[in-house]
Amino acid sequence: MITKEQIEIFVAQAHRYGEARLMLCSSGNLSWRVGDKMLVSGTGSWLPVLTPEKVAVCDIMSGQVENGVRPSMESVFHLGILRERPEVNVVLHFQSEYATVVACMKNKPSNFNVTLEVPYHVGEVAVVPYYRPGSLELANAVIEAMKDHDAVLLSNHGQVVCGRDFDEVLERALFFEMACRVIVQSRMDYTVLSRKDVEDLWEHL
Fold this sequence. Notes:
Layout: H1 4-19, E1 29-34, E2 37-41, E3 55-59, H2 75-84, E4 90-94, H3 97-103, H4 117-122, E5 125-128, H5 136-145, E6 151-154, E7 158-163, H6 166-185, H7 195-204
Parallel strand pairs: 5-6
Antiparallel strand pairs: 1-2, 1-4, 2-3, 4-7, 6-7
GO molecular function, one term: aldehyde-lyase activity
GO cellular component, one term: cytosol
Pfam families: Aldolase_II
């Protein structure tokens, strides 16, 4: 059973992501694994002001909605990620300012490791082509990319990150946004850490 307290935790975290300016209006969606159930923001809901009445409860394996609230149209990839990644408990789709600029670039970066926080907290970023929001093509592309990545850039759309808990997801999203801000504000004149630098980080951190 999903409790009122669990719904309240989920709503509070949605507000936290909104306060971090990770999305505008209804542009983002959030999910949380609770046992064999998934809490997910409802279709058309605004994460910064999400209310308990707009939180959908779904069975993870069947995808069946259990409380009558229509889930976000992107709930298919949320479910798919949770099924494929048993260690993942939180999935966030967002559209932060600079990362969305990068998502719309004609020539996107192939390496986001502008500071040590990116390889250490975000990892390699997968890039998927544009597919219509809510489409099965987009869901399949995101699920496939998330099998071995924790962050995905959706071309001309936004970003998806996943993690073990709400803090890890927030950290991942904010450091991804920071990297994209460096890339954009440098006017594409930036350097990245070498492979040796990244390996050294993992060895000593």
